[in-house]
Each structure stands twice: as C-alpha cells, then as structure tokens.
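As a warm-up, study this chain.
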Amino acid sequence: MDFRLFHLIATVIEACDQQPSPGPGHPPSETIRVVATLRRFLREGTPWRSLRASADQASGSTLRRCLRRWAETGLLAKVHALLAAMLRGHPDLILDTCSVRAKRGGDLTGPNPTDRGKRGTKYHIATDGDGVPLACIATAANVNDTLVFERLFLAAFAVTARIRNVFADKGYDAERHRELCRAFGATPAIHKRGQPRGSGWESNAGRSSAAMPGYSRTNASPCAMTGSASSCSPCFRPPAYSW
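Now compare it with the structure written out below.
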C-alpha cells in the first residue's frame, strides 16, 4: 500500500472521529498506529493477543477498542463513503453475493441451500466497475437476494451518487428492481430467469473479483468490513502483495 494513501486514510479517520475528552493516564494512541495495526491484522492474520504495541503499531486490545468505538458511532461507514467519493470510480454498479459457513452460529446465520443446509452467512456486495466495494450487507444464508436489492442499491447510490448501469444475476430478477434503477437514472442489466447463460453481464461482473487478488465466490468474506466475528468462519484474507 502506498504510504501516502495510508496516511490519507488515517487523516480522514481523525477528521471524522469525535474522541472523548482525554482524562488522566496514558494518552490515546495515534490513529496512524491503529491503522497500521489493522493493516497487519488483515494482511497477516495475526491473532488479537499476538499484536504487541511498538513504536509504529498499537496493541491488539487498543485496536479492538478503537474498532468497537468506531462501529458504535458509524465512523467507518463515513470514512468509506468519503474515500469512495474521492476515487470517482467507474460508474457501473455490480451486485453479487458470497456465502461462508458459520460454524459457531450467530444472529445473521441460517441454513445454506447451496451447502447441504449447513448454517452460514451470506454477504451481498456492491462494487463499481473497477471492483471498488461500495456497499455490503450481511444476512442469513437462506435470505433471498431479491429482498436485499433495494437496500444494497440505495446504500451504494449514497456512496457514489453516479450510476450508469446496474449488473446483477438472475437472483435479483424482479421488475420492481429495474424500475428502481430507472428512477435513479441507471440502466438495469439484470439477468432474467430462463435466459441462456453468457448474456454479457458476467464479463462486467468479473471486474469485481478480478480487482481483488485471491478472491473467489466461495472463499471471500468481508468480515473486516462488517466487524462481525461471531458469524464468520476462517476465510479469505488478502495476500501480502495486495497491500
């Protein structure tokens, strides 16, 4: 990762973060150190308790405390929206899902119809045409894609506010979804049930996976995005060279 981008992320977090008034005791860790620790956790998969504080990084307990506070205030969603808006990426929107097993259960779990009914979590992901993630919603594995389309589309529109085409597979096939896309000035390219495969949308949707090295429909997991560990099984982590 370019260190200029690294510092930009920390700067945006500091601008959006409303830290409590410092009291007596040790001063709070610098945001850049917390972000560096988060990068290491995602890149190397180091357990929380093995993350030790150093001159450049914070401890695992500090990282967890910051992530909890950021999640409670919705800070990460604000930072993501600002960074995505700064990119001014490709105007196409691509919707897809991936499911992972949830061996330890959790609130957002259910029988996965594609995995012999074993409990799992489904992640509904929206990316732009360059594969940059714009929105993500976690549900039980047995929730139908059509029930999440509107929430996912509106969440992505709130981030990018500029959508030209909407690509999705037949899991999202519904006329009301096409009408929603047209209402926001976007051209729907949602695959209809009964049509032959290879109608064209897959070549565009492929960009969302090609932009993330090591991604596959069966092993990807945006656990870090949702901050939920209760419903995630051991799954995808970006390889070192992607950072």
